[in-house]
Amino acid sequence: MSFGIGFPHADKECYVITRSEIHAKEKITFYNKSLPDLITNLKMKNGKNIFVDGGAEIVYELMKDNLIDEYIISIIPVMLGNGIRLFHDSRPEENLQLVDCKTFDSGLIQIHYKKNQ
């Protein structure tokens, strides 16, 4: 939230997953409880999609409870020697269907998959 630019989701209800107790700011809630409970509660509200932008730990927690319907994976053209893994081991196997693939002048590639039903 402090990368030198305005928070791009400030106009939407937003949850930041954290291990700390932090008080809410504007429409941002800092959440440190059960992710499945959060997603279940959000799905009961009016609205459209739930967008999750997170690392391997959060994605793994959602995958193991079958709570992700679609994946948008961005590949940035920077080779990291010892980077952070995209997915944890022991995740469930999922069959995916390609929805779209976009390339950008920067070299970034964005791949959009949805789960086969």
Provide tags for this entry:
single chain, 117 residues, alpha+beta, Dihydrofolate Reductase, subunit A, three-stranded antiparallel β-sheet, two-stranded parallel sheet, 2 helices, globular
Structural class, from secondary structure content? alpha+beta
- State the oligomer: single chain
Q: Give the helix tally.
A: 2
Total strands: 5
State the order of secondary-structure elements, H for helix, E for strand: EEHHEEE
Helical amount: 10-25%
Topology, pairings included?
Blueprint (H helix, E strand, L loop, with lengths): L13 E4 L10 E4 L3 H9 L12 H9 L5 E6 L20 E8 L5 E7 L2
Parallel strand pairs: 1-2
Antiparallel strand pairs: 3-5, 4-5
Descriptive overview:
With 117 residues, this protein is an alpha+beta fold. The protein has a single domain, classed as Dihydrofolate Reductase, subunit A (3-Layer(aba) Sandwich), CATH 3.40.430. 15% of the residues lie in helices and 25% in strands. The protein is built from two helices and five strands. It has a three-stranded antiparallel β-sheet, with no helix packed on it. A two-stranded parallel ribbon has the order 1-2. The mean pLDDT is 84.
Question: Can you give me a brief rundown of this structure?
Answer:
This protein is of the alpha+beta class.
